[in-house]
Amino acid sequence: MTGWLRRLLGGEPGTRGNAAPAAEAAQPFIINLFDDRVVVHRPDGQREEVEWQRLSRVVVRATSRGPWAGKAWLILIGDDGADGRQQGCVAPLDAMNHEALVERLAALPGFDRAPLDRAARAARTGKDRDDALCWQRGAGTDSIAHDDGEAGHERDAS
């Protein structure tokens, strides 16, 4: 998808790619919400952010790979910022302040929470799930690509 996402979750299946060293499990991801942006502070000290006005898609993923396997992840993808770099951030659903982020995202017109709930269930049961779109800028509620939970979307992690 993007370089920063590959660095966080790892490259190919079964590899860590260029991911930063795994942080201790006790160190949380921290989400800070501001009027103009969301900022995620990662356990490895890195900071990711996206301005609300540049947010273009919200995707959810459940994975058994990478340094933080067995979790559902929110992936916020933004357009290029003023500096020309793509904005975005990734946070697990157990990050500090994730409830406030989900509440803010749920207020977006056409936001679909069902894929988020399915990904959380898949993560708890050790399943991988295909990425699912929860929201896309400019898409009406009818045209959002919904993850319908059909067979084939969920896979065993082994």
How would you describe the overall organization of this protein?
Residues 144-158 have a biased composition (Basic and acidic residues). Residues 139-158 are annotated as: Disordered. The chain is α+β, with helices and mostly antiparallel strands and 158 residues long. It has a domain at 28-130: PH-domain like. The chain has helices spanning 3-9, 98-106, 114-124, and strands at residues 30-33, 37-41, 47-51, 55-63, 71-80, 86-92, 127-136, 154-156. The radius of gyration is 15 Å and the shape is globular. The model is unreliable at 8-23 and 141-158 (pLDDT under 50).
Class inferred from helices and paired strands: alpha+beta
Counting DSSP E segments of at least 2 residues, the number of strands comes to 8
- Shape label: globular
What's the CATH class label of the domain at 28-130?
A: Mainly Beta
- CATH hierarchy: architecture of the domain at 28-130: Roll
Summarize the structure.
Residues 139-158 are annotated as: Disordered. With 158 residues, this protein is an alpha+beta fold. The protein is 17% helix and 34% strand.
Topology:
Elements: H1 3-9, E1 30-33, E2 37-41, E3 47-51, E4 55-63, E5 71-80, E6 86-92, H2 98-106, H3 114-124, E7 127-136, E8 154-156
